[in-house]
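Q: I'm teaching a short session on how sequence maps to structure, and I want students to see two examples side by side rather than one. Could you give me a first protein with its sequence written out and its structure tokens following it? Keep the formatting plain so it prints cleanly on a handout.
A: Of course. Example one:
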Amino acid sequence: MKFRRQFTKKGNDAYAGLEFKTTSSEIKNPDGTIVFSAPNIEVPGNYSQVAADIIAQKYFRKAGVPAFVKKVEEKNIPNWLWRSEPDTEKLNKISKDKRYKGEESAKQVFDRLAGTWTYWGWKGKYFTTEQDAKIYFDEIRFMLAAQMCAPNSPQWFNTGLHWAYGIDGPSQGHYYVDFETKKLVKSQSSYEHPQPHACFIQSVQDDLVNEGGIMDLWVREARLFKYGSGTGSNFSKLRGSTEGLSGGGRSSGMMSFLRIGDRAAGAIKSGGTTRRAAKMVTVDIDHPDIEEYINWKVVEEQKVAALVAGSKLTAKNLKSVMDACNLDSYGDKERLNPKINTELKKAILNCRAVMIPENYIQRVMQFAGQGFKEIEFQTYDTDWDSEAYLTVSGQNSNNSVRVSNEFLEKVQQKGEWDLIRRTDGGVHKTINAPDLWSKISEAAWACADPGLQYDTTINEWHTCPEAGRINASNPCSEYMFIDDTACNLASINLLQFKKDDSSFDIEAYEYTTRLWTLTLEISVMMAQFPSKEIAQKSYEYRTLGLGYANIGGLLMSWGIPYDSDQGRSICAALTSIMTGISYATSAEIAGELGPFPKYNENANSMLKVMRNHKRASEGKTRGYEDLSINPVPLMSQDCPDQNLISAAKEAWTKALALGEKNGYRNAQATVIAPTGTIGLVMDCDTTGIEPDFAMVKFKKLAGGGYFKIINRVVPEALAHLGYDADQIDDMQRYAVGAGSLKDCQAISHNALISKGFTNKEIKLIEDSLESAFDIKFVFNQFTLGEEFCKNTLGISTEQMNDFTFNMLEFLGFTAEEIDVANIHVCGAMTLEGAPHLNKDHLDVFDCANVCGRIGKRFLSVDSHIKMMAAAQSFISGAISKTINMPNDASIDDCSDAYMLSWQLGIKANALYRDGSKLSQPLNSALLDEDDISEDQGIITNEQDITKRTSEVVEKIVERFVRAERDKLPHRRKGYTQKATVGGHKVYLRTGEYENGKLGEIFVDMHKEGAAFRSLMNNFAIAVSIGLQYGVPLEEFVEAFTFTRFEPQGMVTGNDTIKMSTSILDYIFRELAISYLDRNDLGHVGPEDLDSSTTGSGNSKALISEKVASRGFVRRELKVVSGGTNNVTLMPQTTSLKEDKVEINNDDSTTIVVNETKIPNLAQEIEAKIKGYEGEACGECGNFTLVRNGTCMKCNTCGATSGCS
């Protein structure tokens, strides 16, 4: 092949046009311990600190790089391409500890990657002349350094270690087809032929122990997981649980083997580090066990919920039994007799009420009788890596169901569907198709699995049907081809092709596509594979996976909404150009080296697919060949740049013409992958085809810590939309915050001086505000000093040590003033409500999630699906993407999303409804509340209610004697909350003092009897009088929360309360949340008021930053508490590892059982509001995981749950 220079100049170094810098890389655990450190590394000057960290931690070879190397002469290869090996003569002259080290410069990595590809490309005769090889070598190195394109992670791990450094090792059981002899060969080396492929599809037969069978698959999967790759399989050939065995008896069934494979995958840390293996399980819709498979993860998550709730209830109640058995008021025998010991009797009854087994209760009593004073019972939490999840199955794979057009038509027609036995092809069972469809939607709504793969659509676009059907996909669903094949990926960073005049550089984009198509083709030729079958079929079909990233960032920079006809047209055009040029390049290579070996028998089918792609690029709506569902065509009239439309059409004209002449070198050319870790290396704002996830990002500093910046394309977008520099600066400051109280009207410097602050304390505050996430975290003893807080401000030691203490409220600032100051200092983290911004431009800045403290907007479900459909028409593989749904999405919404995906010709779809995983806090709830309440003990009998009520009455009397009544103003603020408790409507109205303190309540019951309504009215009056005489609201909350009487049950109409044990319980929980910021109530935490049950979404919430009522605003709906004093480090939870809890008393004996720590929910909440998922990274522990296709990636260390 011939090449010309696009980015480099002849005679100059490849990096001549780029600057490089020396920096340090350090990644820390949440507890501050260092995970990785690399001082004085060299990276391109355009690299962010995150990109530098990723390439240093993930992709630099850490050891085995010789200090001196020498070239190994090879015949017929230019000397500048000779491979290297350690120069032992020079190495022996230096000390042993200096002979070998790790890579220290990104240039070393770029050189070994590009050098290896050029080396094998020369051997494979891909270059016409030596000069063409040199051009390719330089241009690829430049593009890597300039963040224009990047290959998948296994290339960075493995490629070039043998060529550049002579690193090698024994064979790991891999195979390859020799490109010269065309014979299958078993590898004799670990790295001479690298393993550059990330995505695999493997077959499995209905056989237990033979090669190609079930148990053999686990071994093949393990080999892939170990080296960081991912794999998928279709298990539909396995017989169902009711089918017979050849030797008699019944089969264990497909599900039993899936559970085994799931546990095997969970035991292997992918690549030796990440939290789980990347695996896809696919099952056809007509399998006999399909119903059990659909509900697999739903049932397993129910088990987790039961384990969590059950373990904590058991621990709590057994402790009460132990405590009752050790009361000093009874003798040794009496204290163990529940007929005498009334406290023990009550504890036993409470245990029985929550179904704790009698023998466990008796066991604790027996321990107490033997002298034990304490017992620790292991409890569980809903963290993904916790013991609760480790005890259930189905958590180590993405699950998909293969649905055919026939089934979907049966659903529409409300027809019947047959489940087919695998042994004889007979009908196992006939079920109602809509009922089965509903089960899929319900499961996806409940736990985000299964996803759907549209079997008919996939196989109608199959380029090689003579090779067999496409049955499965890789873990992220972008690679779909026949079984026992592999795909290596690379992604182009679209934003790098935006010129200074904002136009798109089509010429450079096409040039890059051509070079990287060749790079992936060379990678197939040089690679080794984990099995004979994959090696053989990869040689025969040579599938590639070129894609792109940053479409969301590119559209935003142009001021074009992601959810718009313009945006979809641009996406379609760019995808059409990429795939058309890639296939044209494949045909060009075929003209020189021949098509892929199995091309001739599939030529007609492949050319048919090419013609259908070409028709879509021409905007045609009919005339497609052998397609049940026509693709979404390129809508040229919607594209603002007609040059893109012309290029898209020309690319397919060229691809088809060359293919008809030469055939194609590759059966598939393009996919759209998640671009997880490589997206971070390229500093992509958005990954794959995804929109952005947050408007404000936290940029990492080289010395550690973070600072807030607006998404880097936002200023470009605002300028493109016509705003001037001053307006853009105002809007940026609104989103990011001023980082200072200097010009703040709500909490000014003068206001602080009037409270006793001096210039010294104000400077301390100002120094900490720049990186603060919330100003509350700055106003504390750690910033101001204990002496000043105690002596000048009059804060007690107890208050300073109380993490719920709010110094600003103590100083007399209202909730509204604190909110306004927070927006001024820390920013809204959204452009909603920004000064100068035209409301018509808001959709340009819509993200996948709600942004910031007061944001309400997010992209619709349909916008994700329509963008996928626009691109799918021009992708030879598929697209990895998560369809984000709000928490209040219904089961019907899930069903409609799946159906729309099919109707628009998408090949696969995965839904993620906010909060559908127990392990993740809700986006919606987090934006609606900060404090999650904790039960301090459920009252189960009338005596306790009477006792606690009388205690409060006594306190009310005491306060009455000592205090004077503080009457409310005649015109006062407050809020009205309507809700339904156990089917009974309740109206709660509050009245507030000027400072926002609660002073009265009114309670009305809808359509209740006169006596009951009057009783509630008078009860409210009694409480109001108590409040006005100084009885703290805390006393009422303590007395009446969790009282139990009818009406009780489900609560609807309230954003934060979903279950109540009585009307009084509901009322005082609502008041505590609104007025007390009750972190002590919040200690109930996940087991009683888990975040997955307390919110219904805030996409429709009407939150104003200027409302008067503190209770209505619920300051905590907008500003979260918890976290660090300032955000110099990302917010982190406690480490989710087991610690031993040992209680050693001199006069007692203790049983010690491991107890799992409960994560700090406030820090998860903070991470969610910043746009992250709220889960801890399994590798570095930081809360910086974001959705990435169908997987997740960590923005701190680059770990990904996928295979790229």
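Q: Perfect. Now a second example for contrast.
A: Example two:
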Amino acid sequence: MSVGSLKRILKVNIMGSFVNGLKKLFGSKEERDMKAVAPILDKVLKEYDRVDKLSDDDLRAESQKIKKVILDRIAPDERKKKELRGKLEDVNISADDKEKCATEVDKLAKQIDEEIETVLNEVLPVAFAIMKSTARRFKENETIKVKATDFDRDLSTHADFVTIDGEYAIWKNHWMAGGNEITWDMVHYDVQLIGGIVLHQGKIAEMATGEGKTLVATLPVFLNALAGKGVHMVTVNDYLAKRDSEWMGPLYEFHGLSVDCIDKHEPNSEARKQAYKADVTFGTNNEFGFDYLRDNMAINTEDLVQRKHHYAIVDEVDSVLIDDARTPLIISGPVPKGEDQQFAEYKPYIEKIYNLQRSEVTKYLQEAKRLIGAGNKDNEGGMALLRAHKALPRYNPLIKYLSEPGIKQIMMQTENFYMQDNNKQMHIVTDPLYMVIDEKDKTVELTDKGNDYIAGLVSDPKFFILPDVGTEISEIEKSGAAPEEKQTKKDELIADYAVKSERVHTVTQLLKAYTLFEKDVEYINVDNKIKIVDEQTGRVLEGRRYSDGLHQAIEAKENVKVEAATQTFATITLQNYFRMYHKLAGMTGTASTEAGEFWSIYKLDVVTIPTNKPVIRIDSNDLIYRTKKEKYNAVIDRIVELRKQGRPSLVGTTSVEISELLSRMLKLRGIQHNVLNAKQHAREAEIVAHAGEAGTVTIATNMAGRGTDIKLGPGVREAGGLAIIGTERHDSRRVDRQLRGRAGRQGDPGSSEFFVSLEDDLMRLFGAERLAKIVDGLGMKEGEVLQHSMLSSSIERAQRKVEENNFGIRKRLLEYDDVMNSQREVIYTRRKNALYGERIEIDVKNMIADYADVLAGKRDSMDYEDFKLDMMREVSMVPDFDEQYYQNASHEEIGDKIATSITEIIKRRGEVIGAQAQPIVEQVYKTQSATYQNIAIPISDGQKMLQLIVNLKKAYENKGKEIEISLEKCVTLIMIDEYWKEHLREMDDLKQSVQNATYEQKDPLLIYKFESYNLFQGIIEKISRDVIAFLVRSQIPLRQNSELNVREEASKKRTDLSQMKMSHDDVSANTGEPKSNAPVHVEKKVGRNDPCPCGSGKKYKNCHGKGLV
């Protein structure tokens, strides 16, 4: 052993001893976490001894006592907040006073949240004890008889597990959930109580498979729902949302808490609005996010469905907040000429250059084999091999050759040589190629040879040359041409840049589609539709599309219809959506590997919850083979061996292609098996139900990793339990741990082992260098296997590299969206104020002040006459100060003068409009107020006409002041929506165009931040200008006979989202299950003339069915 190796080992041992010493001194994190919750757990168990002795009625009364304690604690602040909200609605209070009230309301809202958390911590032991006792009673009793409340009677009209018998309600312990009847059979373990405490504290509870995460969530959900602010239970798919709401719902409803699921109701419907008003609301992460975006596109308050984002628990939190967070939720709509795309036009050229490169790779590989075989390893042989790898790294013959002893090392040594001095000599390797592919970063870049080839095909030598806009505009300015000619040249230059930029983008995306995205691996073609296959689960991601034109490029490649382009109307990442919650918590089986990211982005701590029974599953070290062929043969041999032992085996794969390959190999051996992948997910429930039976073989893509619970059949436990066979290490350790977690649930025996080859993607891209040295040193022969803990650790280090890389991508995405989010918050806050109207006067006052500052700032660049003309053009008014004041006063003084003038003009305009409309308002109110709630008043600024919808009663009572406020609300809303859509389109274009900054060695993100700030300042200025301009010009257009044209409005216009499309672009792991194929359960139906189930004695049509039948 060398001295260097000895030093490294000593260093590792010393560091290990130091870390172990710290753990002994302070305890591990898991020990510290458990020590912190132990006193709370003791209190819960003590309360349970008391609570469980109560009668059923007294138990329900206990929950109402807690509710009263919470409401009494926050009642004074709630009353004060209500009084201040009343003042905000008072039209006679000045904008300055309203601003003070609004600030106080915001402070009180935070104060109430803090007080709720304090009192919830106090009542937690009792609340948890109540929920555990409720679970125990439902498990041990087929029926529970209690005194009927109004809530029980209402519930009995549509729920078949509650019936009314006179003054009593009979609750059954069996009900329908997810299309199947279940009988309640669970009671919380102590470790589940710990999980509940952690979730209530706003942390992530990491619990092993089979530990009952769904049951754990009932504890903090029940506790927090008692505060009346709403609890959101977030799942990864609609099947789980509906199933869990039906499965756990009766436990909450037994104590008078309402439960609903948003995925059961149509978007923007009254039913979905009521679902959000429930004490406990279940739903998918996507629908919660889309509802937020839809609410911020609503044109009246009746269309809003969500309330305050108070507390959310996210199931499979790593899937939602890590995997799905890579891409934004988008509501988009059609754009003019959206079908005018260039993918079909340039596809033939890309196909030609790809095939040329592929044929060149074959030659380079043959040359490399010949030269290396002849002993020329360092010069021509290594270069030819590296050139083939740079040209097409996924070329199967190349991958196979690199797995041979010593070959990978030759290529890496050659690459290191040419990468010296910041890749100074790398062009010698890449110049003969048409393109250079980086598989790690998923990038493709045409070389000069490739550029020239395509330029020759299209007969345009400047096909890829983007003009230097800055330099050429400078040249135009210096040219001495007439101003009109200069402007024409500038427009032509910018148009040329836009065309070429779009062309480069199209070609780049087509190159990616051909070189980096494989059919049946990254996507599948079903019914001439390209559908993304989730890399984490192997499921088809319905409705998902790759972003930035990549999906259209793949559609062109596969000769299916290329979908039209759309424009973004509203967007948010799940990261920024969930960061809006006052308190956020999550649960999953695998979170510790991403603990750093959870804390960095969400400030969520990960707490590992101990298992109820010790895990006795045997996790073997990885078995490492040289080639995939050897690996797959070994997998089949292992399956045969396990079948002879009577053990079921679950074979995990990373793609549809591999699962089908293994299926063919098993058929050749005559072994019966089931295959579960993206093409056959409809049979998931059936296949999983039999996966634990003796001798059963199930091949599954990683979709088996989540949402499935494999129960062992007769005799399997004695045979050794379920065997997990991984056919490849996934990029993420979480996915591998999910697969392992299918075995060994609740103390069951089991085993797991992963079969790895040096040809696997993970090993080729991130882990091969170190392992290649070991393999070469051992002289590994065909069919031999390596197995050691050090090798398994080396593979995990490779996975960490990928995880770090993926974290960097997600963080980069978040940095881009943080720019948008700061702008989104400003716009959505103003929009909300315009919808509700409580703070619209404050916003208008601020808009006047901001725009007055903008006008005042023009003094340095304009003389007085030009300034007057500019004010006339912008806001149709002249300054009320002379030229001397204009020249001598400060910017602040001029701004104040302008703001005062604008305020006075708007006030006078409002008074005139109110005086004109009031006689008609009074007439309609006195004669037709029973028929109409609103009236429509035409308002014009001389150019645009709008129909102003005004509440008839308010307009009558406050003598027309309501008309002024409604006008400010309506105009602000219109201008915000008009300019925000335009801004989003510009931001989409900006995000795409700044990527070209990398060619100039600049950071695209910095340019994006700078340019987006300027763009946003521009739209804020435009919104303020146009709102003010409309208000100062506003008038009621009169007919020729001077009569006011006012018409009655029965109802307000609803938001139209019929042309909108909801999407979650790019690859993101929706780890949910497909919809269940179980029988549809029809809810209890009551005839209109039948007795009402609530026990009132009335007919259903005259009681709870009134208005429904």
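Q: What should students look for in example two?
A: Point them to this: Residues 1-13, 1067-1084 have pLDDT under 50 and may be disordered. Also worth mentioning: Residues 789-836 form the longest helix (48 residues).
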